[in-house]
Amino acid sequence: MTIRIEIANKARVPDSRGAAAASRARSFLHLPVTSCRTRDVYKLDIVLSARQAHELRRVFTDPIVAVSALGKLPPPRFDWLIEIGFKPGVTDNVGRTARLVVEDTLGRQLGKEEGVYTSVQYFLRGSHLTREDAERIAVEILANRLINTVRIFDPKEWEAAPIDLTVPRVGGEDEVVVRTWNLEVPDDDLLRISREGILSLGLDEMRAIRDYYRRSEVRTARQDVGLGALPTDVELECIAQTWSEHCKHKIFAARVHYVDEESGAEEWIGSLFGTYIRGATEKIARKADWLVSVFTDNAGVIRFNDRIYLTYKVETHNSPSALDPYGGAITGIVGCNRDPMGTGMGSELLCNTWGYCLGSPFFDGDLPEGLFHPRRIRDGVHQGVIDGGNQSGIPYARGFERFDERYIGKPLVYCGTVGILPHEIGGRPSERKEVKPGDLVVMVGGRIGKDGIHGATFSSEELRSESPPQAVQIGDPITQRMMYEFLMEARDLGLYRAITDNGAGGLSCSVGEMGLLSGGADIDLARAPLKYHGLQPWEIFLSEAQERMTLAVPPEKITAFMDLARRRDVEATVLGEFTEDTVLVVRYKEKVVGRLDMDFLYRGCPQLTLEARWRPPRVPIPRRERSGPRNRSLLEVLGSLNVCSKEFKARMYDHEVKGRTVIKPFVGVNSDVPADATVLLADYGSREGVVLAEGINPYFSDLDTYWMAASVIDEAVRRIIAAGGRLGTIAGLDNFCWPDPVESESNPDGSYKMAQLVRANKALYDVCTAYGVPCISGKDSMKNDSVRGGRRISIPPTLLFSTIARIPDIRKAMTMFFKRPGDLVYVAGLTKSELGASEYYRVLGARRGRRGEFGGRVPAVDTTTALELYRRMEGAVVEGLVHSVHTPTLGGLAVALVLPAVGGDLGVEVDLSSVPAEGRLRDDEILFSESNSRFVVSCPPENAAALEDVFRGTRLARIGRVTADRRIVVRGVSGSEVINTTTETARRAYMHTLEGL
Amino acid sequence: MTGLRPRVVIITGYGLNCEAESSLAWEMAGAEVERIHLKDLLEAPPRLRDFQALMFIGGFSYGDHMGSGHVFALRVRHHLGDELRKFVAEGKLILGVCNGFQIMTKIGLLPAIGGDYLRQEVALIRNDCGSFQDRWVHLRFDSHSQCVFTRGLETMPLPVRHGEGKFHVSSGRFLEELERRGCVVCRYVDPATREATQQFPWNPNGSVGAVAGICDPSGRVFGLMPHPEAYLFPENHPRWDLHLLAGKLAPEGQGLKIFRNAVEYLRHA
Fold first, then answer.
1. What is this model's ipTM?
2. Is the peptide bond before B201 cis (omega within 30 degrees of 0)?
3. DSSP A897
4. Which end of chain A has less Cβ packing within 10 Å, N or C?
5. What CATH number is associated with residue A858?
6. Nearest by Cα to A926 from A914, A908, A939
7. What's the sign of the alpha-carbon dihedral A433, A439, A444, A449?
8. Nearest to A722 by CA among A809, A825, A813, A800
9. Could you give the 3-state DSSP secondary structure of residue A598?
10. For residues A401 and A641, what is the distance between their CA atoms, to the nearest angstrom?
């Protein structure tokens, strides 16, 4: 029997969910929706007495604000009703909570066949709305067809409709089927098997697998456990996951033939990762004794002080966010939280970071069939990470957004998490991962469903129209929060030996990777707790269902471990044990369904060889603006999507929980301009702080990825210095998001994209070693292309470089806004004629309808002079000589002079002829060049001599002063005013673009 | 007469998440804190009797599913109702912040002007702006309120972090009754005028009467949406660097005063 409960706000209580839906329908789809009221619907597929049903309706309802009914509640006046539910098997978090309430009220556990399902009703008013309009609102605003069911009624239909009691129960046969594959087939068929199974393996890899199964010792060993000669689906899928680009980083591990067509030089590179990224870190590590664990664990580990380590990981979740922006993004952040949680013995979580590269929310071009509008992606991605972070009780420390039309095919969704790890836990070094043979394999957290199957292999593919819906997962922060608190408790009680997260590849990757530490593992998939019937063994093994960790628990601790789990309402299941047998054995009940040699699984993947050919792109340089005032250009740059304020959305993220923030994401007398870097207390009662920043600039990639990478690393380091972080304590995280760099018929310029990747890595090596900034962790996402409707859209090569550093005394932390009228304004560092790919050129291009004209010199980095300047700046901040330090980035000095004035609600007067410049530059070049390695500084007049003394021998010049009159006045090189506007006008230009969006 | 270090219990679990800073706040104020997971407490409700104060902390209990605080409150009222009644009757203190405040109103602990601490009388509903907001607001404390947590306090900047914090009463008369009985403890004010305001963002959620926190008629049960436990250190303030520059950086965060008042009260109770 099923009962239906409908709950609505009382007529006099506002319904902001409905109001938001109506407002989005009006502004987004331009449809005449006058109002909207909503209702929550619960369907209880449970045997209940009439009294129990009534009691449940009562406890579900808030008596002050809501009314409810069993069956249908009389509807409000409406023109169209849209009811949105979930498809079978999709995570229904509210339904899961309601199930607990039912159990608590009835005083009994519900059975597997019983369920609670939710949906939401939207009653729309608008006399001119048609059924087609209602369908558009449903599909383009409220629902995602991949995961939701949608039903639409007019008032007569709703009145006539019987009470809907259908529930999205998952059907499915219970018969267990293990299929086998014959790989002794022609090459074309090998590739077909790979493609049809979404294995995403290449021919060399399929051949290597075939050859493994030919080996006689493999055949014998398989016979011994009752397996035939042919690979099972469990095995093949496991290999595909382990060898996926996502898990194996094959492109970064490939041999590369690099040809520079400009110079004619050519070289062979052993692997990009080994040569440049690990190469740089190893070189730096000879001097930096604070690197504890790099590249090996789920997150990088560095020593912060004599008590704690910091762990940090930044992830991307691009493909899932393209398919379901909300679900993909919430899974992104909650999934990234599990990385530090699964690092070493398990870290406590300190803060999150996020950043998105998206199409313009104002996009009005031709959108390929099947893609969401960028505005919908943006709204969904934000809301996903907002809910994921807020509900987990983890503050965010950094956030950014970048916009470009090439991100409409695949949005980039970066999520990062910083954790804290005490040096020792229970007398053991906390960073060490150890598994002993005989330890039990224990899975903790959520249950397994079909969610996310093939996530790892799928993310290594371009987005096609037939991309699988089960690649969508929806995170559940509360289940994870409960698991996290339990794990911290179990950790401190010494109840487990090792921990890792279930991310890409699910159990197949987590059990395998931990098995490497003992030698092997032997598990029974039939023991795994499932969300519903009908999962085949390979699906259980691969499922990326969220909120799960895998642990190694010593047998003598298992009783205490399971008991604590029960007392914390966290599900924990023993799946098997770790062995020293050098094999991974997978059973389903008594029967072995998979057996793989660990050595083959982890070292059998053939190395790729890739071709890289560099030729500098030819990009036209725009015509100059006529000389004269630059007020208009300044205001346009301030209001451009990339520069403008992102505060409206950012305020919806919790950045204060835990009470550790010192420099918040937004600063200034009105807390409305972004901080260069943020600072958090590492520990209550201490004055030591953690400093976080980042650099990202995909636009420079259009000219040269070498200088793109150099620039973003310089920016990420410089922001740390500006906030008072110390050189020699800065660590970096590299996140490469690239268009497919493997050349093929469908990807004819692959070798150029590969050359772009090579050049970015060369810059990373050069700049990181020069600055002494080791990379401690990273992630690459190499197939950020979308092919739909015959159109290929590739993202610009994008490197996010995140930095983390230490400040010994938070009271020395520095902010970027002007503090006092009369303070002197300085520029440190050299301004060059480097307008190539600048925000200014993009603004000019947009104004003139010539967006392709942005060529010119791309900003370079001179690490020797920069490093010297950073040392001096560090000294000036420590000695307390300055009142503000700011890092010019997008929009150059122009923006970097305005924002500190806006932040301080003050004015500024400067003279461009005083700016330290390379050669004789025009006003535009001084104002808008995005030259690297510069600061804008303010200092009280009494400190001027001391400041100039600190910077003696470097490029520092006084260019003006802070004023009380709230005007921005800039004199050009000829002495005439080029900018004269009010701080308020500048603030409005800066705030207006994304206000309310 | 209680000892010098009053004992405070903080209930944790199921998505509540401010346990670290809330514990610290009480400890800095001189109390002894024990955190008890709701599941453990439900199995042994008399454990509450060991404490002089109870705090419902912030967070997202049960993900705010079915309404913020709703499910946590159902379980607490169902299993701990009798103990809570006794707790209040014995003159002990209860504090709720953010989700904890929402939970307390759902249980009926606040404002309880009908005298029944297990019957809901008011609600906290979704913010008028439609979204979660994290921003600092200014509070003004009502000098007529008998709330023991806020004695002597006039104004205070604190952060809010919520999506459902709009104070809602079923009638204007009920609000007048609350005011008359000294149950309105603090309101959102415009920092320029120091007057209660309905203007966003100073009133971040559209609360009727700009009400940010209320107490019961005894003044010993208090809940508010802003987070005093997030302002324990002077550097938590968004403009602490300006305070420092002006030589006016306070030795400690202002939020701590609320906890100090509570501990002071318990020491003399």
1. 0.97
2. yes
3. H
4. N
5. 3.90.650.10
6. A914
7. positive
8. A813
9. helix
10. 9
Domain presence at residue A541: no
Residue B2 has a pLDDT of 47
Burial class (CB in 10 A: 0-12, 13-18, 19+), B97: buried
The Cβ-side half-sphere exposure at A757, using a 13 Å CA radius, reads 34
**DSSP assigned state of B50:** G
Would you say the C-alpha torsion A88, A92, A95, A100 has a positive or negative sign? positive
Q: What is the DSSP letter of A747?
A: B
User: Three-class SS of residue A735?
Assistant: strand
Q: Which two tokens stand for residue A642?
A: 């990339």
| Contact indicator for B164, B118 with CB cutoff of 8 Å | no
How close does chain A come to B107, measured CA to CA in Å? Answer: 11
- Indicate the residue type of B232: L
Establish if B244 touches chain A: CB-CB under 8 angstroms: yes
Distance between A960 CA and the closest CA of chain B, angstroms: 21
Q: Looking at CA atoms only, how far is residue B119 from chain A in angstroms?
A: 10
Strands (E), A479-519: 498-501
Among candidate residues A136, A160, A184, the one where a domain is terminated: A160
How does pLDDT run along chain B (269 residues), one tens digit per residue? 445 899 999 999 999 999 999 999 999 999 999 999 999 999 999 999 999 999 999 999 999 999 999 999 999 999 999 999 999 999 999 999 999 999 999 999 999 999 999 999 999 999 999 999 999 999 999 999 999 999 999 999 999 999 999 999 999 999 999 999 999 999 999 999 999 999 999 999 999 999 999 999 999 999 999 999 999 999 999 999 999 999 999 999 999 999 999 999 999 88
- Picking from B67, B123, B236, the nearest residue to A659 by CB comes out as B236
Cα separation, A148 vs A90, whole angstroms: 8
By the 8 A CB rule, do B109 and B117 touch?
yes
Is A64 inside any structural domain? Answer: yes
Q: Which of A511, A507, A529 is nearest to A440 (CA)?
A: A511
Q: What token pair was written down for B100? A: 């904890």
DSSP secondary structure letters along B23-82: HHHHHHTT-EEEEEEHHHHHH-GGGGGG-SEEEE--B-GGGGTTSTTHHHHHHHHHHHHH
Q: Identify the domain containing residue A622 by its residue range.
A: 616-638+816-997
Cα A946 to Cα A718, A811, A952, distances in angstroms: 22, 21, 10
Q: Which of B75, B127, B136 sits opposite A104 (nearest CB)?
A: B75
The whole-angstrom separation of Cα B67 and Cα B74 is: 11
Q: Which of B66, B132, B133 is nearest residue A97 as measured by Cβ atoms?
A: B66
In a domain, A37, yes or no: yes
Token pair 């089927």 is at which residue? A177
Residue B63 to residue A97, Cβ atoms within 8 A: yes
Structure tokens at A328: 């993909």
Q: What is the DSSP letter of A744?
A: B
Tally the domains of chain A. Answer: 2
| Bridge pairing between strands A775-781 and A731-737 | parallel
User: Which residues 6+ apart lie within 8 Å of A844 measured at CB?
Assistant: A622, A625, A633, A853
Cβ neighbours of residue B174 closer than 8 Å, sequence gap 6 or more: B121, B122
A468 contacts: CB under 8 Å, gap ≥ 6: A198, A453, A454, A458
- Which of A451, A360, A466, A443 minimizes the C-alpha distance to A403? A360
Conformation bin of residue A404: beta by default, left when phi > 0, alpha when psi is -120 to 50: beta
Query: Residue A456 belongs to what H/E stretch?
Result: helix A455-459
What mean pLDDT do residues A28-50 have? 95
The two three-digit tokens of residue A743, written as one number: 């050349």
Task: Report the amino acid identity of residue A127.
Answer: S
**Could you say which of A160, A176, A192 is where a domain stops?**
A160
Chain A contacts of B240, Cβ < 8 Å?
A: 662
**Of residues A397, A359, A391, A363, the one with CA closest to residue A377:** A359
How many interface pairs between A and B have CB atoms less than 8 angstroms apart? 165
Residue A381 included in any domain: no
- The domains found in chain B, sorted by start residue, are 7-268 (3.40.50.880)
